[in-house]
Design goal:
By secondary structure, the protein is of the alpha+beta class. The protein contains two helices and five strands, in the order ααβββββ. The termini are far apart.
Length: about 100
């Protein structure tokens, strides 16, 4: 009988450690990775839908109206006679 009890008191299993690691990965995935991927997809689809006449804001805080889109460059009118070119990736979002 004592040999049976001694066999059970051997080295601890790795299941609690693996369970903790899997739980931490799941927490990171659902709280950090997945929401960031969703925001990235929404931003990409917004950039693809930009067209002439849309009012936008840049990541630098510049407000303007799109007057031209070509490749990866957007031309914005920020005042009556003021135009600037901005990289498409620097458009933060549309404004109303």
């Amino acid at each position: 009988m004592t040999w049976f009890l001694q066999a059970q008191q051997g080295a601890p299993t790795m299941w609690p450690t693996w369970g903790f690691l899997i739980a931490m990965f799941a927490i990171f995935y659902f709280l950090i990775i997945r929401p960031q991927q969703k925001r990235s997809k929404e931003h990409k689809s917004m950039l693809e839908s930009l067209s002439k006449g849309d009012k936008v804001v840049t990541t630098g805080g510049i407000l303007g109206t799109i007057i031209g889109v070509r490749d990866h460059v957007v031309t914005l009118r920020i005042e009556e006679n003021t135009k600037i070119e901005v990289l498409l990736s620097n458009i933060a979002g549309k404004r109303e």
